[in-house]
Amino acid sequence: MDTTEFTKETLRGLAGVFVIVETVKPDAEADGLNVAQMQQFVEKNLSDAGVPLLSHDEWRSTPGRPWLYISVNTIKFLTGYFYSVDIQLKQEVSLSRASSISTSAATWELGSIGMSLISDLPDRIRQTVEIYLQRFINDYKDMHTEATISH
Questions:
Q1: What is the pTM of this model?
Q2: Sequence-ordered list of residues with C-beta below 8 angstroms from that of 144, at least 6 positions apart, any chain
Q3: Which residue of 4, 74, 77, 93 is 20 to 30 Å from 124, comparing CA positions?
Q4: What one-character-per-residue DSSP string does 85-150 give?
């Protein structure tokens, strides 16, 4: 799924996000892919761009419980990795046919697959996350700037 006006629209009125970076496989971690550093990188970029970060307690009490989920999957082969990177904004949604039924669903997402040499994996993943994160930030700002102007 690529972002469209519809998926961007799901960011309108978003109070902020809780960030979760999924753990990576031990071999990728041993080859330099550090989840804690990625979490800090994502949070700093969001914060610097003016996207509010929610603590776990704030997240639990925020309508829709929005969270930005970053997932990196890897498969190591002889001299490198196959990898996938996904960034999703997940939030609580209700079924239109039965509004009493709700679940968490991705309402905005970007993802890709690629290959990398072992030594290039951390930089390649960081660059991909940075590009996708900037798209999220831009879409977030678009939806919040428009809301400010129209109200």
A1: 0.88
A2: 11, 12, 14
A3: 4
A4: EEEEEEEEEE-SS-TT-EEEEEEEEEEEEEEEEGGGHHHHHHHHHHHHHHHHHHHHHHHHHHHHHH
User: In this structure, are residues 1 and 109 in contact, taking their beta carbons and an 8 Å threshold?
Assistant: yes
Using the predicted structure, report yes or no on whether residue 150 has a pLDDT greater than 60.
no
Going from N- to C-terminal start, the domains of the chain cover 5-150
CA distance 32 to 1: 29
Alpha helices in 2-54 (DSSP H): 5-9, 26-30, 35-48
Name the CA dihedral angle for 84, 51, 9, 93, rounded to a multiple of 10 degrees: 70
Tokens of 88: 């999703």
Which amino acid is located at 9 in the chain?
Answer: E
